[in-house]
Every structure is written in C-alpha cells, then in structure tokens.
Design a protein that fits this description.
Blueprint (H helix, E strand, L loop, with lengths): L53 E4 L3 H9 L4 H4 L6 H12 L7 H21 L2 E2 L2 E4 L7 E2 L3 E4 L5 E9 L8 H14 L3 E10 L2 E2 L5 E6 L2 H22 L1
Parallel strand pairs: 6-7
Antiparallel strand pairs: 1-3, 2-5, 3-4, 5-6, 7-8, 7-9
C-alpha cells in the first residue's frame, strides 16, 4: 500500500541513526510449522522486545506520517532493487511522492481488514497498525500488517496484498518489503497473504498464503542500500 509522505527531513534528529540482493527467483513453497531453534543472526538481530520499539500507530495519522518521513520504511525499501533505485527513493523522500493512490490501492484498503480477520482466525496472527523501529537503528522502520507468536513463542509477521494477477512466485519488491520487516522486528517468518480479484471481485472464498523465511544475506544488502538513502538525505541537511 503506497503512502504519500510529507517531507520532514529538516526535523530528523541526527542521533536517530546509531550506527545487492541476489536476483534468484523465489518460488512458493510450504514450510513445516514446527521448526528447530531459530538461526543465529548477525549484529542486527533483535536486541530487545519489539513492543518496546513502537514509534507510532496509524490511527494517529499525523504522528504516523511524520515518523515515516523521518526514516526509511519497508515501502521505501521495496523499491531498492539496485543502486540505481537509491536516487529515486531519495527524491521521493525529499520532495514527496506524486502517487496519491488509485482504484487498486483503494480496493486494497477496503479488503485488508477482511483479509486480516481471516489471518487472525486461521493463523492466530493479529492485525497490526504500529510503526516499529529496528533495535540498532531508529531510522529503519516498518509497519507489518500482522504480528503474532507461533507455538514456540517466536515472533511471526503477516503481510497482506490484493492483486488482479495470478502469481507463480512472490514478486521481488514484496519479498524486499517482507525481509525488511523481519529485520526491523526481529522475526524469522512472515505469512504472505494475497487475495486475487477479477474486476475487484474476489475470485475465491479465501485468500492464498505462503510462509516466507528470513534471509539474512538479502537483509544485509537492503540495509546497505537503505543507509545510502539516509546518507544522501543527511547530505542535503548539512
């Protein structure tokens, strides 16, 4: 879901920041529900509970948009396919995006609560509208569509989409969004849920879904590109 962000880079506190993904296609595949102990991650592994890192809630629209404008979000990172994309993201963060939505985004907004209720009922992942920051960098932000715990009390996320297309694999920009959210919240798995429609009428009684596992190699590349965006933006402030 694309959000038009205000340009508030002059308000960014310099103390907020503490400190190329592979192009191989990713196809859908189910993962077993019960897994071994979660893998050990690098220095960007979650250091404290994700609930301690809530920045804003989307119900407070002004605070939520201001917070998003003062960092880089999963929506921004979804566009970072290469170094070439960095400048485009910088421009939109600096001047604001011209995209204000269309009939497809409005349909997605209308259907998201319905799909989120299905996710909660079938997988126990509750809807979420909180904006979180990463444990090691307060300018790294994400708002997953759902947050929950699995049977082993491990954090899991949900990401919801609507589409008029049939997908054989998850689009790469959505994978980047998912990996970034996993990094920000310290999660190992995300339930990617999509509802296909024909002229805005759902084609099935229930949405489709697949689990996406965390990929630290991809996350490292995304962090590098995201920090390039932040560095460029800081340069305009200096």
């Amino acid at each position: 879901m694309t959000i038009v962000q205000p340009t508030l880079w002059g308000d960014l506190d310099p103390g907020w920041e503490d400190h190329p993904a592979s192009a191989a296609p990713v196809t859908f595949q189910e993962r077993p529900t019960d897994r071994a102990a979660p893998p050990v991650h690098d220095t960007f592994t979650v250091l404290r509970g994700h609930t301690e890192r809530i920045v804003a809630h989307s119900s407070d629209r002004v605070a939520w948009l201001r917070a998003r404008a003062a960092g880089i979000t999963a929506t921004d990172v979804a566009r970072l396919a290469s170094l070439r994309a960095v400048e485009a993201v910088v421009a939109d963060k600096r001047w604001g995006s011209r995209f204000s939505g269309n009939v497809y985004t409005e349909h997605g907004k209308d259907r998201e609560p319905v799909i989120a209720a299905w996710v909660a009922a079938t997988h126990g992942i509750q809807p979420s509208a909180h904006l979180f920051h990463a444990s090691t960098n307060r300018a790294h932000l994400a708002t997953p569509d759902g947050v929950g715990l699995d049977a082993s009390s491990r954090l899991v996320l949900a990401e919801i989409k609507t589409t008029g297309k049939g997908w054989r694999s998850i689009p790469r920009h959505y994978l980047r969004q998912i990996w970034w959210q996993q990094y920000v919240l310290g999660a190992d798995r995300t339930l990617f849920v999509w509802e296909r429609h024909d002229e805005f009428v759902p084609v099935a009684d229930e949405p489709e879904c697949r689990w996406v596992d965390r990929d630290d190699d991809q996350i490292r590349g995304l962090i590098q590109l995201a920090d390039l965006v932040l560095d460029r933006l800081r340069g305009f402030r200096d």
